[in-house]
Amino acid sequence: MLKLHDFCNRAVLTERGRASRFSCNYHNWVYRNDGSLMGVPDEANFFDLDKKKCGLVPIATDVWEGWIFLNHQKQPEVSLQEFLGDFGTRFAGVSWENTDTSLYFEAHLDANWKVLADAFSETYHIPSIHPATIGKTFASAVNPHSRPLDARFWGPHRQFSTFGNPDYAPPEDAMVEKMAYANRDTGNVLGAAETAGMTEYLDHPAINPKQSKHWALDIAVAFPTLHINLSPGGFWSHRFWPISVNRTRWEAEFHVPKPLTGREKLQQELYITRIAEILLEGVTARK
User: Higher-confidence residue: 148 or 190?
Assistant: First the structure.
């Protein structure tokens, strides 16, 4: 696998797709897929041009459990396996369900990346920020402040097990929520898949490590920018990309089963509506 910086001293503007070459729309320089420079308009007018020295800059990459990691150092000081350490070992072998279909959200936010990453790392804020949506799903009379069930740390990486209210039921006026989850058991209101058929995934020892009946989800944080959320109804991820000291590109991707019926499709659309509302509550509170 080869990854390249998306600039040619200007920019390669093709965001995605398949091609045997890349071109820069600014000067029409053309690059092969390996990043080497193959074409320069009016090349004869350049003095001492050495195209071998003008290729795209490769990025160090490695793969863990199907997740692709980038390292912007030319020569990484440690391997990905060394960097992840016991965190990587702990979550190795998770059966990542529905990886071929997902719901994708993206926003550029006026906030430092660490502020956003920390906001999605805990549930203490949920009763106050999300009272009308998920406030009562992550808190109850037993645990009104949504204290965590468990927390574990491996250097800069961590896992956080959140409390869930097993007695929660949608209020009568929450029609979208009620329709989205009618006749389905997703384990909580954030999961997109039914728990039926998720046995291999849920049996992994890293998931719900305390085996608590109050478990809602685990937040696995691979420092610095990746959060993997594992719930009874599947998993989703958050990625926080620093653009500047006070601006961040935030991505959220929810992996969902491919709908096979009209009912499933409708419920998935309602689920999207519900999730979008919850995410907006969270990110707008960061301003």
Answer: 148
The top-level CATH class assigned to 1-56 is mainly beta
Q: Among all chains, which residue has been given the structure tokens 């990346």?
A: 113
Judged against a pLDDT cut of 50, whether residue 186 lies above it is answered with no
pLDDT above 50: residue 6: yes
Q: Which of 269, 275, 135, 159 is nearest to 209 (CA)?
A: 159
Nearest to 34 by CA among 18, 22, 51: 22
Q: What is the mean pLDDT of residues 170-189?
A: 64
Tokens of 217: 């989800």
Say whether pLDDT at 106 is over 50: yes
**Contact present, 207 and 94 (Cβ < 8 Å):** yes
Within 8 A by CB and 6+ apart from 143, the residues are 163, 214
CATH of region 93-284 = 3.30.530
* Domain segments of the chain as ranges: 1-56, 93-284
Q: What is the secondary structure of 69-108 as a DSSP string? A: EEE-SSS-SS-HHHHHHHHHHHTTT---TTTT-EEEEEEE
Write down the pLDDT at residue 181: 61
